[in-house]
Every structure is written in structure tokens, then in C-alpha cells.
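Sequence only, no structure available. Ideas?
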Amino acid sequence: MTILERNDLSVPFEQPERPDKPEEACGVFAVLAPGQAVANLTYFGLYALQHRGQESAGIAAFQGAKVCLHKDMGLVSQVFDQEVLERLPGDLAIGHNRYSTTGSSKVCNAQPVVLMTRLGPFALAHNGNLVNAADLNRSIAATALATATAVEFTSTTDSELIAFALQQAVDSGLDWQAAIVTAAGLCKGAFSLVIGTPHGLFALRDGHGIRPLVFGSLGEPDQGHWVASSESCGLDIVGARYLDDVKPGELIYFRAGDPIPTRQIWCQEPTKLCIFEMIYFARPDSRFFGESLYSYRVRIGEILALETPLDADIVIGVPDSGIPAAIGYSQASGIPFADGLIKNRYVGRTFIQPTQAMREAGIRVKLNPLPDVLSGKRVVVIDDSIVRGTTSRKLVAALRDAGATEVHMRISSPPVTHPCFYGIDTDTQDQLIAARLTLAEIERHLGVDSLAYLSKQGMVEAAHENSNNFCTACFDGAYPIPMDEEVRASKLTLEPALLVNS
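Reply:
I predicted one. C-alpha cells follow.
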């Protein structure tokens, strides 16, 4: 195995000031295509999934039983160049974009995770979060003690725990498929996985299917070239044809040249896709339930207009995620849509932070209002969510400074009152503004003339799917997967009686 990653595994990654949003999940991508430049294809797949994680990126490429790995901190375009990609030859590649929901921001926590087994090496990339990491850690340690084998952790992530569980299952005598099912059975929580081995590619989702995962074919359908991706936009960018979702609780085995993969249901649980994937996380051109998320987001804007009507002059959206809902709100209400905010699209997760003096002077790194559009207008501003309220408050002040006579905020999701334990970073509960303040108090805090949220019913009905098939825990606290009290206590910091908007 060849490791091309940076040597200093303890260097922390400087983080920018956190946005007023639920922060990203991770992105996983894999290509099995003999004769193709699989590392280059994986680079572009990760590029399309960059919105799912901007802290680190990595690619592991297999050439027979040899695997080369490169991973580092930063965006995909910062971590890889053509010279690096040319040092990743092979027929199979596994890629990952990371946002740290568990483990600190260090290069040692970047993925894929690569380990050696009696059947050869494997590379694992994980999107999600386990809620039984402590129990799994103890189980791995106990197995290592019983078999007199060493387990050397190099990271602080639950993804590495999954990898060690798989390594132990393979080394116990199981084949790849049986070992993956055995390791997955030890995990509780959200996990969408792509796993590369010398024998082929595996893709798996947890029983509830909380995080998305899709697959498609590259080239001619009978060629047996496969692509797996967190979202369909990853397939589109490399010219792969979408075939299907990896179903909740499904394990799929792809072999090079085999026109039909092996599919098996390893676990059956009620489907609980994260509804925030629909509202905010996934790219608007990704397809869920047979249509682009752009269409869903326009619909929730239309429903929001019907549920929360008002008299105003223009509707604007907070770029980029609030734009489709703002268009829907405009269409349903008859209030003209306008571009009132300009986004600097080259900021990303900037490593250079404004000084406090710059912040106090009103530096606007990401969004800048247009006075020509806003001055003298009663403005409806549409955003997809409010988590802490910090950015929203600054935004409202900027709109008023630009001349808006009234600012009415409409949110195309319900109030976020509970933290996520399944792969999205939504802070502890005491940091969630809707868990602490009443609607009137939030209005005063933000400085808006009015504030209204989309109803939970409107949110799920707009998906045109069974409402029971979604995880809505961040809005109602109905967590689909039981967790240890220690895990719950780490984020659920408020008593039920204090949840004013739940």
C-alpha cells in the first residue's frame, strides 16, 4: 500500500466562523471502470459533491491488490492536481469529501480509511454518524484482545471504527460480503458507505437510509463500468447514467465487466431519509424520487406563500439555497421576485478571517445587498432555515441599511428545535434559537417586521412521498434510532418544558 498523504497527522485545520445553517454532511464517490482514468473521474465526482464537505478530500485507487491513497485538508481543487492524480492509477477508486461531524479537523481524520486484511487491502468512505461509537470501540477492543491482534487507531472518527470492524470480520474468516454485513450489523446510526476491495466495489446504506446513495453505469450498459455517489449530480458530471438508489438496508456488490450487480437486503427498518437533504443539503440538480430537488424547493416556497401570506413589494432569496423557494413564493403570491442579494461565489470556506474591527465595520464577505433593488421596498426575504440566528440578524440589518422599509422573513422549513445525531452538525440544543425563544422573541432578536416558518405538514407533503419515510427529528425530536443516554446528553441540553416551538 502506498500512502501519499501529508506526514503531520496532528496539524489542526483553521476553521472559519460558522454559518447560521445546519452544517454539511459528507460526500462519497466511487468508480469501477477498467481502462478508465478512475482517479480523474473520482476527482470530478468529488468536485460535484463539494457542497457536502469542504474540510478535506481524499482518493484511494486500486490497481489489483495494490492501493494508493492521497488525502489532505482543503477543497478538492486544493488537494489534487494532475500530477497527484497520475500517481493514483488503477481500475477502481474511492473518494470522499469531509465535514467533521465526529472527530476534530485534522488530516488524520480525512478519508478514505485504508486498512489491510487477510484478503488484501480495502478503502472505506463514510457519510453519516454512528450513535454507538463508544460501544463499537469497546467491541473492537474486546475482539482484538481475544484474538491477540493489535488495533492502531490513527484518527478520532467513527468511520475508522467501521473500518476496523470490517477488518476484524474479514480476518475472522468471512468473505467480503459476509464481513461487510457483519460489520454493519454492529453499527447504529446513519451510514452510507462505499468500499473498494481487490475483488470489486461495494455500496451500502443503513437500514433507515438516512443519508442518500445512488449508483449508475458508465459507458455502455453492458460494459460493467459502475459509479456510486452520494447524489445523482456526481453521476451527471462524469457522464454516468443513473440507474437506481442504493435502497435503505441494501448492500450492492459491483464487479468489473459484470452488467448486473449483486443486490441484497441486509437489514430492514422503516425508511427515514433526512428531510434536510431535500430542503438544503443536496444540490438542487440532484434527483430524489424521480425529480430534481429544485422542483421540490419551488413547491415548498409555493406552500409557504399560501400558509404565510402578506402584502409586500418584492421577494428575494438568500443565495443560493433560498432562491428556488423564493421563486415559488413569488409565483404563488404574485409578489415580484428580484435579486436583492449578490453572493461572492468564490469565497467557499475561506481560511483568512476578517478581524473584529472589520466585522464591526460591516465587512460583507459572502453576501452584499443591492440598494437599487431594495431601497423604499417592503421586502420578503426567503431562507431555508435558521439555526443560531447570528447570520440572519446581520442580514436583516444589511437589508435595512440598503433602504428596505420593511423586512419580512419567511423560512422554507419548520423551526429547528433539536440537534441532529446522524451526520449533520446542528450544535447543542441550547444554541438553537428556536429551542430557546418564542416566535415573537426571535422576531425581535432578528429585527424583522414579521417572521414565519413553513409547517411540518407542508414540508413533507411537498415531497409527494409517504410522510413517514422521512427523518424530521431536528424539527420534532422524533429520533428514529435509539441512542445511549450519554450520546443524547451531549447535545440535548434543554428540558422538554423549555422547547417553546417544538
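The mean pLDDT is 89.
Hope that gets you unstuck.
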